[in-house]
Amino acid sequence: MASVISAIKNTVPISLFNRGQAGKIFEDVRKNGAKVVMKNNVAECVLLSPEEYVRLMDAVNDAKLEAIAAERLARYDPKTLVSWDEMMQELGLTEDDLAGWEDVEVE
User: Fold this and answer.
1) Which of 23, 39, 60, 101 could be a cystine partner for 44, CB 3.0 to 4.6 Å?
2) What's the rounded Cα separation, in Å, for the pair 43 and 30?
């Protein structure tokens, strides 16, 4: 029963937008969280605060990075490792070439 009440509280008929109540709806989203906009008894879109959207997108990106890391770890073979010196030589770099890059963050 609680999930039905929650669903009712978190849905907004699109007709409220047509009646000029968008500001009130947006304020409710900021205070209470996401709302599902219904049009002809079908979910049309979901309204989120910008902060919630950023949080969700960060979580999605973190999950993608975690999946990439897990895939790489599954294929990890220590025999394929390259030493720092070998890498620098292969790339044609010297320590002087890297001077000043201490503050650069690489993901």
Assistant:
1) 39
2) 20
